[in-house]
């Protein structure tokens, strides 16, 4: 039989063959050594008997796969931030780069608009000129829900971000789920984890992968020379750079740096790009040292 992996718990996987027809299967050890099944994977499996679990026999070819959150065959990566906790925008840059490498369409959701309506404006300024779409939502006030649903319908969307940004509350309003919700720890002012495992869920025309909140993400093992190509607003100016290729870092006569100095490109996001570029360079050096 063929089906879609909904969730993995240890060596057990829940697989949906068709809506409402779900099997529990194990993955053979030799299969897990090559590539462990991920939520969103299409697989071939033997359903097993009434008294025993089935087995995943093969993972069908993926169109993409993200490392963290670990999911496969995603159309949209929905990154959620909020005024509280303070957003880690360098983490967002890493996730955007991962999405670009895997050819996943990213969107940025500024949630909890009821707490700070100005935050979305700042974010839009930082990403002005880039193709990134920014949405403003509030689960409490049900703001922006209709617009967001229209974008997600018919797509497989993975929701990701730090803990306590309101992913579960947003999905409850968006999809009619009853996910557990949490908040900030009074001692650490960090988010409490309510989603513990990535899970693919369906609600009408929506296919959503909810994922646990996280704050750490390793830098991709990427050739630094490729990185500027994942920033369309920078790449469009490359023809004006004195040197080719240009990394848009410290090179003299760089058109991107000139655009930043002139205010045509946002300086804050450019500095995040340079920081991420240096991290990619260091990771690349370690790989080939």
What do these coordinates show?
- There is one protein chain.
- The protein has 289 residues and is of the alpha/beta class.
- Helices cover 27% and strands 24% of the residues.
- The protein has helices at residues 29-34, 89-101, 119-126, 145-152, 167-175, 232-235, 255-261, 267-288, and strands at 2-9, 12-18, 21-27, 42-46, 54-59, 65-66, 71-72, 76-81, 105-110, 133-136, 156-161, 199-203, 206-210.
- The strands form three sheets. It has a six-stranded mixed sheet, sandwiched between helices.
- The longest helix has 22 residues, at 267-288.
- The chain is globular.
- 36% of the residues are buried.
Brief summary:
The chain is α/β, with parallel strands linked by helices and 289 residues long.
């Amino acid at each position: 039989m063929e089906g879609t992996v909904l969730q993995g718990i240890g060596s057990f996987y829940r697989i949906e063959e068709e809506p409402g027809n779900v099997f529990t299967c194990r993955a053979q050890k030799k299969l897990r050594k090559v590539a462990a099944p991920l939520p969103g994977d299409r697989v071939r499996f033997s359903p097993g008997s009434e008294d025993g679990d089935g087995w995943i026999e093969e993972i069908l070819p993926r169109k993409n796969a993200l490392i963290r959150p670990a999911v496969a065959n995603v159309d949209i990566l929905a990154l959620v931030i909020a005024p509280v906790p303070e957003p880690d925008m360098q983490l967002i840059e890493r996730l955007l780069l991962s999405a670009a490498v895997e050819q996943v369409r990213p969107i940025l959701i500024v949630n909890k608009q009821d707490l700070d309506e100005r935050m979305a404006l700042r974010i839009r300024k930082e990403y002005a000129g880039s193709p990134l779409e920014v949405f403003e939502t509030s689960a409490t006030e049900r703001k922006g829900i209709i617009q967001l649903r229209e974008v997600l319908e018919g797509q497989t969307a993975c929701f990701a971000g730090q803990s306590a940004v309101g992913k579960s509350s947003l999905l409850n309003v968006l999809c009619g789920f009853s996910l557990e919700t949490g908040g900030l720890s009074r001692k650490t002012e960090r988010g409490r984890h309510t989603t513990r495992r990535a899970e693919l869920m369906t609600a009408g025309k929506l296919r959503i992968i909810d994922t646990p909140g996280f704050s750490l993400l390793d830098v991709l093992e990427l050739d630094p020379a490729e990185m500027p190509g994942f920033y369309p607003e920078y790449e469009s100016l490359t023809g004006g750079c004195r040197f080719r290729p240009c990394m848009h870092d410290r090179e003299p006569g760089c058109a991107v740096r000139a655009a930043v100095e002139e205010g045509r490109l946002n300086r804050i996001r450019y500095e995040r790009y340079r920081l991420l570029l240096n991290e990619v360079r260091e990771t690349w050096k370690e790989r080939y040292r």
